[in-house]
Specification:
Distance between the termini: 40 Å
Strand content: over 45%
Number of helices: 1
Order of helices and strands: EEHEEEEEEEEEEEEEEEEEEEEEEE
Largest sheet: 5 strands, antiparallel
Structural class: mainly beta
Radius of gyration: 18 Å
Mean pLDDT: 86
Low-confidence stretches: 1-18
Amino acid sequence: MKTYLFLFVLTTITKLYSQVFSLYSTSSINDIYSASSFSPIKIRIAQNGVILLDTENSILVHFSENDTISYGGKSAKFSGLIDPIDITVKGLNVYVLNQASNSILVFDSRLNHIQTILISNEVELYPSLIAIDQYENIYIYSSDLNMIYVNDSQQKNFTEFIDLNMQNFDFNCISSMRFSTNGYLLLLSGCDNTISIFNQYGRLIDTQPNTIDGMAISVKRNGAYFIANKKGLIKYGKDQPKNLFIESNLIDIDYHDKKFIVLTDSLLLRYDFFD
């Protein structure tokens, strides 16, 4: 029998300038999904819960207070998680990027498969990151080619959006790619510890330092962003970093509608965030 661990903790709300993180739920990864090998490395807030992706074991999980739904195990089917590497959520849909098979699986919030989008281009892209803008255009990052491509509803193929080689980005440096609702694309680079901000036309408008060696990023509605490092330091925009004092390594973060979630190698932490 699956068990769910919800430790509702009365915490002293800690303020850092105008920021408030209030922890309201802690869940063990082992209790979220019973498979002993479940090791998620990606997390996104979704309809009525959160989505977790274990890329090594090809397992996708929707977790909420009411139930846990899983999909996956490696499969070569058209709707299978062959080699999932990244996820994103837009509205009620969940998008999973299959890398070597050059495809995107689309699910509803209950992990029912809706469609498979084949990534068509003149060359094999082998993308490693996916993001979706406010108009539901799909963007993918190819670390092999150091390029970002876009596919809108009027196009069959993915076409070039940003040539990072022309922006002096090194290969295999982008570790996270996220959109704000006002159309800004944020790229987190692990090579030079920067956050690069592009407008909706693919023009670089700002570059900011990643002063905490952050490895995960999430974006608020107004374009302000959170960045986090594996020790649990959280930096919000240009403000000073805050320590969440987590006891295990931070892996990923996400933010949506005043909800902030943290994935560690053993826990899922959920916070209310106020600013």
